[in-house]
Please model this.
Amino acid sequence: MTIDPLISREEALGGMSGRVTKQASLLLILIENRTIYLLTQSQQAAAFALSEAAASPHQNFLDAIAQGRDLPFQPTIRHMERYAAQWAILVPANHDIQAAVAHLLGQKYKFTAQAVPGIRAALSLDSDTVLQAYQRLYNQPLASIYISRVMSLLDQLRWRWARLAGRLENLPPFWLACILTVVIGAVSLALPIAVAGIGPLPGVIMIIVIGLINMITIAAMAETVTRSSEIRFGSGFIGRIVDDYLGQTSSLLLSIVLAAFSFGLLLVFYLGISTTLEGASGLPAEMWMVFVFLIGLYFLTRGSLNATLALTIVIGLVNMTLLLILSLLAFAYLRPENLLYINVPWLNGQPFDPTTLSFLIGVVMGIYSAHVLVVIFGKLLLQRDPSGREVIKGHTVGIGVAIMLNVIWVLAASGAVAPHILAKQQGTSLVPLTATIGPIMGVLGAIFVIVSMGLGMVQFSVALFNLAHERVDTPKTAVLGRQGRFLLSLSPIILVFLLAEWMSWTNTGSFTGILAILGIIVDSLMTGIFPVLLLVASRRKGELVPQVVHSFLGNPLLLTGIYLLCLLNLLFHALIIWQNPLQRLLGLAIALLMLGLTIAMIRRGVFSPRMVIELRDDRSRGGKSRVYITANGQSMPVEVQLGYDGGEELLQANSGTIRTMTNLRYIQLNLPPTTARELKVLAHTITPDGTAQNWPGHLTIKGSDTRPTFDAPLANGQVTLPITDETRRIVLNFSETIPG
Model:
């Protein structure tokens, strides 16, 4: 038997008759469901799904749990301990039920008292009243539920990981946002090679300048996410908000860019991992590539990596620590003449080297490519910080930490190895560092590569596979069967593998060069142009109003300057720096496409103000049911009329709380004058886990002559349509029962 884990404990337990054991059994089912839901949500956040369809298996999993279907798998006692603080709200203040749940746990699971402090606190198992209740019910002490034997080393390690994972996943939102923003890995290993052409000190200046620009753009992206109802309560994919704020064409371009990014970055991982392990082991890089491909294939056949948010955090922290250790090792071999080398074009008659400048700009842009992570983790972070204040601050500080770590690394690596040696490297900077410092650098470098690129390789293999599977899984390919479609979806990964093997065999693949191209093309869009356009649109069309808005972020000169800088970067490379005709054509096409798309958006009124009317029945912890109305990104004080079976009530939008949602039949409001030329209406219930369940409704809009100008049902609980100055009255009818 299963019970919806999202119903209240009063609904599940309060009205039930029978013995305490039955009530405790039902409560344990609720706790197990909630635990699995939270674990799956953590895995979804760490899956790096780059599209909604790609994440559908995780989302279907979550929906099945939320709807009270059979448990997809049985949680372990470690999982229940890990999320004890989150499911504790389900436990009623009934000592007999708490004691009975403890008895059931002791029968079903094996654990020591020291291993479950969270469960003991959630069920009040250390209180005298529960101890007495257990003795009365079962004629034995509560301590009998615990095992006394010493756990094996493996079990001890599992419990320690569970406790660590619980602490990490419950970090304050500021620290979570900060850690998740610091991307240390493949790009950092290419950085000393990229700056070798102009020298470490000019390279450091470039790292700081581009980093400061990215602090602005990531704050812009974080504010956009904070304003988006789709991110906070919906599926939370970047394609959705780009489609909503910038239009379908922009969303399509974004999908193409993300697919190209996944392909290119996966190629970088193959080259980076194989060349580093070749240097550490002596085995050919081509052999290591086969091993890397087989690992990726293994996880693709499993269908999921099952990594959690905690694992992502641990890997991020380990990467930062290892980079600092590698830097300290390199500083011991620092030579001042290497550090003081300067080769800036046109300075002291130095010639202009387009390849050197391209490598530098592209790789430096790549070390700050965390903007898409702001969206991926946005839903999870905003559940903990609804105001968005700490989230925005954490992401911004995270870029600052990335600046600091990469500056230290560049100074250390560039000081230890001569610039002309670094500049010749086709692989990572660890190869010449190992030759200079010795085996210790090779061993630690190999560990760093495996940790920093290993998870990323699997994640982007899965991401690229899923992006291909979206296009392959159509009725036309049904004749191929399941295995045929799997192989067809696998073809991009096979192509990456073969291309990496060819590059390694012919010695034509440049680890740094590929990263530089990705940085110029992808990061110009993802860390510059798109964040700027999304901020402008969200400040006019956003559904939610953050508690803190940094006005300087919306400065037209600042945003226009960043947009033009990124656009000119593309044009500069396409017309002057790149010599390869294909690169030139690609860069020019993307720059002109983005410019034309922006002009088209302005002409179509994409950045025109929007009015948003949201009826939200918020059943999350501390939530209130209200009608929210925003126009041009700002709250609009409007009096709203609520219609019930027994009469009507008046309510002030945005501040007044709806007394009851029972038997609500309609809401009606008269609009004041507004500059908005678009209207979006949403009606939904926010469940205790923070997701939205749509309401069926019927929207009627009347003009000055009281005749309906729009009369249609809400599609999926929402509708977006143009409005004019003639719009005067809006009525939202609910003919069906409000979801309970």
